[in-house]
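Async update (no meeting this week)

Hi team, since we skipped the sync, here's where things stand on the single-chain job. The sequence we agreed to prioritize is pasted below, unchanged from the tracker. I ran it this morning and attached the output directly underneath so nobody has to dig for it. Comments welcome in thread, and please keep replies under the output.
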Amino acid sequence: MTVHEALARGVGALERAGVENPRLDGALLLSRVLGADRTRLITCGHEQISPGAQQEDRALTSRRAGGECTAYILGRKEFWGLDFLVTPDVLVPRPDTETLVEAALRRLDCLGPAPSLLDMGSGSGAVGIALKHERPELAVLLADISPAALAVAGENVRRLLLSSGSFNSFYKKEPAPRCRESALFDRIPEQFDCITANLPYIPSAMIETLPLEVRREPRLSLDGGPDGLGVIAPFIKAAKTRLRAGGAVLIEADPSQIDRIGSLLSAGGYRDIRTRADLSGAARVIDALR
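Output:
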């Protein structure tokens, strides 16, 4: 079997299973098996692949067709141009969450030198690490209720910051992001200049309507209670006590929830409330100042 034939077989199997992006996922899985980038699948498409590689590709394709997401199969997911380790203990970082990073960078640029950042509900550490990568002077704390998620975040700090070439020598002088287990602010007495939050916001009754691959992500990171704001509402109330004067809070949520979150922020005494659109043009992030 050639590379082209193996790719066609895999894509066909994923199409029949109803996978959303069968061509992309099929290419990613075969690239992993062959230890090659996706360009080589095209340029070397007529090369033969071994029976062992064929068997491995079929196994990975079967897992994807069975509802396991590609990121968990590969153990990696690109976010903000960085290659994050992901496991079933964390949500898979999504492109729309880059809106949260972009919004935070704009707020941070107005907060003066060497600000401090708390990334609440950090999961894999994607948001906090991306911000540290862009603003090395940031003092970053990654917080999550899940110790398993924090273990993944800690490994990503090591891989992406402490072992990344020129950054390594810099972080010997500047502190790397810290990780702390905490249910919201229970174990976080400090104050910060900026707090980002990608907290669970899906209403409980909607969880079972999600695609199978999403339902296999940690429910703790998905379930936002009856109205989806069961974690966000108390977060907004408590975050004000952990923000320095003029500090910024930024929240990712479903576009249908942004107006209600804006009302909570306004009622809580926050000011300069702004919304930020995601890649589809829908309001995905809302942020405000203390």
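Quick observations from my side:
The chain has a mean pLDDT of 94.
The two ends are 62 Å apart (CA to CA).
Reply here if anything looks off.
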